[in-house]
């Protein structure tokens, strides 16, 4: 009896991981069916693409003097409209930010702008003082 328990413990996990043969067959059949169907669809799509390209090539060659400039024109017009819209949106955003800043609504980045303005004003004041000192030194040395 004691010998059977260890054997059953060793065999039980092996049985749980192994699926019945019928499940394996069903899984394999399903995989083969799905894979085969997708492979057939892929082949049909490739064949249709090759046939369509073969039929369209003479038309593309005949109409290429018209189609290429037309495609370039459409691309330029589209990119121009997209760029124009983007610049307009950017301008509206900036104007909205400036309006909120001027009316005191404190938009994002207003603190940084105020700090930069104060730094710039401080540097301008320093430069003005240095210029006055330099001017006094120059006028003082000329009178002597």
From TrEMBL:
What's an example Gene Ontology biological process for this entry? lipid storage
List the InterPro entries.
Oleosin (IPR000136)
Q: Where in the cell is it found?
A: Lipid droplet; Membrane
Q: Which superkingdom?
A: Eukaryota
Q: Which Pfam families match?
A: Oleosin
Q: Which UniProt keywords apply?
A: Lipid droplet, Membrane, Transmembrane, Transmembrane helix
Keyword Repeat appears in the UniProt entry: no
Cellular component per GO, a single term: extracellular region
Renumbered to this chain, the Polar residues biased-composition regions fall at 134-144
Q: How is it placed in the membrane, per its record?
A: Multi-pass membrane protein
Segments spanning the bilayer are 38-64, 70-99
**Region feature (Disordered):** 1-22, 125-144
Q: Which family does it belong to?
A: Belongs to the oleosin family.
What PANTHER family has UniProt attached to this entry?
A: OLEOSIN (PTHR33203), OLEOSIN 18.5 KDA (PTHR33203:SF25)
Protein's job: May have a structural role to stabilize the lipid body during desiccation of the seed by preventing coalescence of the oil. Probably interacts with both lipid and phospholipid moieties of lipid bodies. May also provide recognition signals for specific lipase anchorage in lipolysis during seedling growth.
Report what the protein is called: Oleosin
Tell me which species this is from.
Escallonia rubra
């Amino acid at each position: 009896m004691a010998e059977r328990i260890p054997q059953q413990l060793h065999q039980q996990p092996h049985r749980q991981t192994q699926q019945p043969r019928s499940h394996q067959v069903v899984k394999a059949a399903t995989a083969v069916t799905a894979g085969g169907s997708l492979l057939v669809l892929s082949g049909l799509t490739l064949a249709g693409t090759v046939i369509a390209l073969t039929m369209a090539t003479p038309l593309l060659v005949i109409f290429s003097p018209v189609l290429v400039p037309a495609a370039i024109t459409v691309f330029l017009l589209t990119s121009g409209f997209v760029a124009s819209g983007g610049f307009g949106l950017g301008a509206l955003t900036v104007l909205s930010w400036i309006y909120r800043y001027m009316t005191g609504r404190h938009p994002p980045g207003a603190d940084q702008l105020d700090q930069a303005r104060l730094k710039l004003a401080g540097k301008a004041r320093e430069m003005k003082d240095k210029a006055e000192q330099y001017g006094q030194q120059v006028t003082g040395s000329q009178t002597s």
